[in-house]
Q: What sequence folds into this?
């Protein structure tokens, strides 16, 4: 097993400019999913995550690519089948169909990074003809069992010719939390434009929203796996430059989205839909370089609030557990000096009970373990699912007052 290697790029991923200014740094951060066996504790990959702003196009981004080689081959991100996620996927498919293809059957949808096929299944139910592209052979198999065809592999400019004849002109190309993992968004957007129906094709991209990340101080979303962090404004700039017009930022209402999401619906500039162009609503402060320096300071304050919360709770003799072992839980804890004071990190579907959380080395446990080892307070990292989590844990004897949302703790209101 070879160790991951890091390559620096020194060039803006969005505009190719070279005027990049660092505004954040997280020291010795692990991969979000690199849980370790107790006997390998301390051997997991850790490296700094500096984050930069491009002074030319204002796109926030990292300037390092991590080549994971065979180190990390079982990366299996999947949102699973939580109720809220299913509702979101259904709404996204239904809203797209009713708003842009009313009454049309057989709309061709290609999803890049299609995972276990759940989103495409929702499109298929609305009458679409679907195809997935997914690097994990295991997830392709899971999708196939649901009747969702996928091509196994990483999508790049060579993939265009590998698509079947009936998918050489596509109505909808969709990516959910995949676009912000791409090291080079420009050639990717060019490939998609070649595939999209030039008259009315749509590119639908869901990514983490930098405006919300900063507003909520969700520094945990700065990960090795993420290359760029867009706002409506920087998305607008990037897509315009690559021959697209953005026509919609509101495909799914905010309250129905997963915790932090920017949904972009773009169409080729040649398309008849381009006249429906919408303007970005990003607050002006995001155009001010000084704002990013302040952001770095605010995030440090948020981390200090979280450390103080852990110190106070445990000093009072309370047993504190974390809930949610996704990237949010793992990366939040990795940046906190006293994370080891938590008893354990609970997850509804842990990767494997008995593993340790990367860097912070807390035990990863399931709900049965929590039932047998009660705690006094639960810090909820996957706060977007707070209602579902409470519903699941209240039968174990927990009261709503024992749950703390990460967002409130970071804001210093707990
Ligand atoms: Zn740039």
A:
């Amino acid at each position: 097993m070879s160790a991951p290697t890091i390559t620096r790029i020194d060039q803006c991923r969005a505009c190719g400019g070279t005027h990049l200014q660092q505004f954040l740094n997280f020291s010795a951060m692990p991969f979000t999913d690199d849980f370790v066996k107790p006997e390998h504790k301390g051997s997991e990959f850790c490296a700094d995550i500096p984050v930069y702003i491009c002074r030319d196009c204002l796109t926030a981004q990292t300037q390092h690519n991590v080549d994971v080689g065979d180190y990390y081959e079982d990366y299996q991100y999947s949102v699973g089948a939580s109720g809220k996620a299913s509702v979101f996927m259904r709404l996204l498919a239904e809203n797209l169909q009713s708003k842009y293809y009313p009454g049309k059957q057989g709309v061709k949808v290609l999803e890049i990074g299609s995972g276990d096929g759940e989103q495409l299944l929702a499109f298929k139910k609305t009458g679409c003809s679907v195809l997935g592209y997914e690097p994990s052979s295991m997830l392709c198999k899971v999708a196939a069992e649901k009747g969702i065809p996928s091509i196994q592999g990483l999508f790049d400019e060579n993939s265009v010719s590998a698509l079947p004849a009936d998918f050489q002109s596509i109505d909808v190309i969709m990516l959910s939390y995949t676009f912000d993992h791409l090291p080079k968004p420009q050639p990717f957007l060019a490939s998609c434009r070649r595939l999209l129906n030039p008259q009315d094709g749509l590119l639908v991209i869901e990514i983490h929203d930098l405006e919300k990340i900063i507003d909520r101080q969700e520094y945990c979303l700065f990960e090795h796996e993420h290359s760029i962090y867009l706002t409506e404004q920087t998305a607008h700039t990037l897509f315009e430059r690559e021959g697209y017009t953005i026509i919609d930022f509101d495909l799914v209402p905010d309250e129905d989205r997963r915790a932090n999401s920017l949904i972009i619906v773009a169409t080729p500039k040649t398309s008849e839909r381009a006249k429906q162009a919408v303007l970005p609503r990003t607050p002006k402060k995001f155009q001010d370089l000084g704002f990013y320096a302040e952001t770095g300071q605010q995030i440090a304050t948020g981390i200090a609030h979280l450390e103080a919360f852990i110190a106070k709770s445990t000093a009072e003799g309370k047993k504190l557990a974390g809930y949610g072992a996704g990237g949010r839980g793992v990366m939040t804890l990795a940046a906190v000096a006293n994370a080891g004071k938590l008893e354990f990190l609970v997850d509804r579907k842990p990767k494997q009970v008995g593993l340790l959380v990367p860097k912070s080395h807390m035990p990863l446990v399931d709900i049965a373990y929590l039932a047998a080892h009660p705690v006094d307070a639960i810090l909820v990292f996957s706060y977007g699912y707070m209602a579902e989590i409470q519903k699941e844990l209240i039968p174990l004897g927990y009261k709503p007052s024992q749950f703390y949302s990460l967002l409130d703790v970071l804001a210093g209101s707990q």
